[in-house]
Amino acid sequence: MSATDAPSTASADELQYVQYEGDKEELYLPAIRQLISKDLSEPYSIYVYRYFLYQWGNLCYMALDSDKALIGVIVCKLEPHRSGTHRGYIAMLAVRETHRGKGIATKLVSLAIEGMVAGDADEVVLETEVTNTASLKLYERLGFLRSKRLHRYYLNGNTAFRLVLYLKEGTATKRADDAMRAMEGDRVVGDTQMEEGRYDREQFA
Amino acid sequence: MAQDPLRANTTPSEDAAGIAHVDGSGSAKHVRHVERHAEAGLPMRQALKQQHKIAETQIHDITEKFRTAAGALAVGQLVKDEYFTLFESITAIEIMDPKMDSGFLQPGETVEESYDALAPLLPEEVIGIMDQLLSYEMAWHTGYPLSQTLFTSVYIDKLLYPESRVFEEAQFYRGFVPDDKRPGVLLEVLRAYCLALIKCCDFVIAKIVGRDYYEEEDFCTHTYNRVLFVQVPMDVFQRELNAAMERLVEEETDMDEVLRNALVTRLEFRLDMLTALDLECPIERLQKYWPTILKSLTLIDETHHLGEPVPDAFSTKIQRRLASTVPPRPIVELDFKDAFQKLRQLCDDCVEATRFAALPVDPLEYQSFLWSYASRTPAPLPYSRAYLSTILFHPNTLNTSMSVPLMDLRTLLLPASPILDQSNWTLSPPRDILMPKPPRLQLALLIDEFTERAGQNYIDLWTALGQNRCRLRRMLGHVILGWDQLCQDTAAVDEDLMRVVHDMGIEDEVFPFPLTTWVYHKKLWMMEKMVLLGFEQDIYFPDEFAGMYHFLSEISSGRRTILFRIQAHISDRIYALQDHRTTSKSTSTSPPPSNPQDQPATQQSQDLHDAHTYLTSLLHEATATTALAAALSTFYIITLYLRLLPYPIRPFSTELLRHELRMKPFLTLQPPEVQAFDESVKSLQPYGPYLEPDDKRVWRELGDKEGLLWRVVDERLKEAKEGLQGLKKGGAGVARAGGVQAEWEEEVKRGLKSCVALGVAVAGVKGVVGALAEVGRDGGGHGGKGLGEDLGIRLEIPGIGEGKRYSEGWVVGKVGKVDKGKGKGKGK
């Protein structure tokens, strides 16, 4: 993937970009699951999707073709993080293999970031494999920087970069208030990783 | 029996039931039942159980309530309570989904594996199984769980489960076995090997969890409630191995000599491994064991081809019976070749670690060793790191006459100092507590207060140096904050110290505020390392290179200034001592200054000279870092203006926000180390924005090989080379890296090579900048015409770990010619 990967807006615009709606789970969710689990070595249970979509369906965007078939999807969340910031997190992003390289993912990420900006986010965070150059390029062109290298972050033993995008000045010096600190007690630690598990141990180890 | 995890948390009455099941035939039903007991250890279940006993059971019919409540919901409407977290969602499974539900059986599939562990094996098959086990053992060492590696072995499973009450029960069967099914010699050989292997795992886990040197990402200590013969002493396993070897030789007389030798080699290897991994191994004998193992490795490697794989002896099904919250995962396949490479590396790294025990008692030598060890490629495995840390934190290492931070402090700042005079610690406080304490005693107490406070910070640094490389960088961030706090806390102690020094009239002999200076110096050193690690780990985007090297240069330059001041102070003291000697020879009436009475002047003089030499070495190093970083920073500024580096537009970000994010780890430091954004822009964009420079001189300056920025690069590069040459000349011993001389010399050499590479790159760019005058005529807003690949060159940034960088932390771009035909298409 190189310069040829640059968004060719024409084909990206032929698609329709739609925000997820909670009462249309039956309509959308099976396709979302199918598209995302294609890239996963182990499937997420339906509860993982529901966890995100129930609370932050407004930060889920779908790219549909003229037949309403799902071509791409992004799933996110946005909530106060114990570091004191209002943190957006991109949990899943997938584009159908046949439609890659057309700027669809870039469009989806842009929509999600705009949604987070509207939701008063301080920063946006995600992880991606160090070898996934297409993904790294996509995010880095939008403004994300690599903040950390995470050794063997994924269950398959692969290493990740954490990418961060600040949206507001003063984000770096925000401090957790006392209410947030009280939450530290119930931090999640498990043998399944997705943002929280690994990140928390690092912060408070 | 107390160690039995199945019973530890259950009540006595249930205990009996547990035993009955453990002793049972091991049918699926029984196994399930026993597993439920295993889960009884969960606190919530325990609590429920107790309640159950105390309170009388009452049954309420909630059908109606439930129906009414459910009626208020639409079909498909989701309900979520606040306790349903991301973690819950991730650990949830869907019943009857073959990928998630571990109890799901495909048509015709059985729960239990059907492999017969008592079926006779050929010698080739035993070799095959042993080597496969070795592969899984190494896969485990590299971070995969036992469930996906060694615990997939049917033989290991049989030995461990059901757990044996006495060691002799640990067989490939339980209970009665007809004579014709009893395992023969070869199975006994395999059993001895497996038993010893399991004990090796036990030793490895104990060593690793005994230290703060691992993280879950590095190494998985989970044993799924299987007990790896924790209580069985090592000699039992040695006996089994020896007996197996004897039987092989005595009873298998018909066996092909080559095969028999291959089997004996493997048993001997296990025997050696056990000895080397033994937790009780005395520190002074560590060096003996690993070389023996290395020798038998060659023999194993040479006979590996004799083995015959037995894939059926390994099964994912066993995972279903392990106490785990996750569905079965695929077996991790690591090629024997790769596994063997890892094993060899493990041994090499452990051999290297044992050299630590022979280091001189000097925390700075330790620091050099730890840094060098952490820099080994490939990176040492968690076990080797834990192994080194066991030696590092051994009482022998830490029980020194002087505390570790104090030794470091003395070397850098307080050689032959009255502040650290031993006699200060021999004074008693006055009987009358209202009387002031003698000044020397006050000094001793202040120093004690400081070392007590600083000890943990020092250990934190050592601990960070033992982590995997990624975590080292992140942890350094935390350690730096700790040292920053230490610096602030030390200020008060330092003030008291200086007051006493003033009262004693020995200001000339004491570097002002020595404690904070020492802490600050160390903090800056760590910051430099952290930035360099960022380059090494590919954290920075090419357009950040200029800024990050600039930052590095600023920090290092600050450290260099401190070192200059310290060295000047030491020089003054050396002169003062010489003066005193000359004068005291002529006029013996002159009283000796406050210098330690019990220390002969020659010793003092020697200490001061040593310190002076050490500081010279540090200064060379700091100069080289400052200068090379500055040269690189300037080089990348130039190449950004020339559009030889990508500079994305980044619609959602600004330079200000990226600067804040990048500087986050350092923003709170006191005194402030981070340049304000405006200042940083001035330094990094001397001619205005890279894409639209508003200073008209830019093209003239960059087009002239003697222009300002080019002169900066050339001068700083020269300075860097001189620094490194000076450092090299002083040698590893002077730099307090005598224990890792070869590695240290290699690092200096790599630094020098980086300088040479930068010189080449500079020449490559200079060679084409003559054409810039033309760009200048167009003015700034020309859309980059005549820049970038239009210059006829391209700048390639060598990636990490490809051997293309001389030093991973010093990223030097390589200039290449643009193929005109190709260049047109790409250079848009």
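qc> Chain B has 28 helices and two strands.
qc> done
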